[in-house]
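ingest -> validate -> predict -> emit
validate: passed (alphabet ok, no gaps, 410 aa)
predict: started
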Amino acid sequence: MPVVIVCETTPYPPFPFSVTNETLRNVKVISLALKLNALPQDFNPLTHISTEYVLFVPDSTRVSRRVLQLAMVAVSSGKIHAVVISVGNSHLTCQQVQWKYADWTLHYSKDASGKICDAVHGQHALLIRTEVLHKLPQPFGLPFPESLYLQLAVKNIKIQIADGKLGAGHGILKTPGGRQRASRHMRDYRVALYKQLGIKAVFREDGRVQWFGCKRETQRCYPPVQGTPSYILSGRNTPPCCRRNMRRVAGHVLRALLQAGARCWLETTSLLGAVLRGDILPWAEHVEIGIHASDVTRVSWLQRGGADADGYVWERATKGHYYRVAYSATNRVYVLILPFSPRNGTMWPADWVLAHQREFPERHLHPLAQITFAGRQAPAPNDARAFLDLKLGANSVERCDKLGPKLLYP
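emit:
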């Protein structure tokens, strides 16, 4: 059986190969380290595989001929393309995988009903048709086999857990320090993979959510918006970490405005999200809050600006009489505060012009209503649908439900 060892760099110390050993003659070490005199195919391990099937095994695995023959029968039947065999006393967990590209998320769920899986967790060997590997963009990507299973799941290629198990030899990582370093390397590979794929949140089968997106100390996940946000052009919604941070900023701003006695309300796109979902729109680039222009002086942070005690940054727009409150000086996810001035029964934008904003009758604010928004109750115009139809055109709620971001970014 030919053996191919794929490495990022040439192993050191080198393997003690012996030219007199018939078995070791079948072993080939492939280094993926860049060599300027190499050919493109030299960096593709598949060019060194000529067999119909490939068996991936963890370190120190003892292969049983009988178990391997049973796995070969299963994978050669034509109904399945890959078979998993447990190693040692490892308990295998059958997982279903759902990659939601538009939402930047990866969902794992446990499938206890059968042995046909998208991914398998636990120490195991994998027998797979070589032709399947040729259909994948990076079949040897790290962390392995997690990266491989994601690629198979996207192409709807299932994996079967076979009966029987292979033996386990002596463990390779004998010290706690060695195990910690290996675990750290796998974690780094995983973070790099998720960054490459644009995965911001991973929902595990036990209910845990792991976040890999932006934080207060990092920049937000999308560049400054010029017209249409970049994520919409990519066919995606707002990254979930950015939306989570928007909720935090919105809650902080609403508390500050209401505690200061300012008359404020949800504006246009944020009100639309509250009516449709009770939350920020999935594709919103910011939160919009209207305020009586005469109440701006009541809010000290709107007057002086800067970072407050909780790290939120208040600033006045350089062009126009409106305000922004950012999540932090580094992470520029923000809330817009838009002053309106009453004049002859109409609320007019106070010396600023923004897309999708226009004047509206003052009666929409007398009295203000309450609406669920981003996990709390927020003040809103008393007839939200009529208010939105005035701002965005007739039947704006129904059109948004149908068109999504094309309502504002055609």
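The mean pLDDT is 93.
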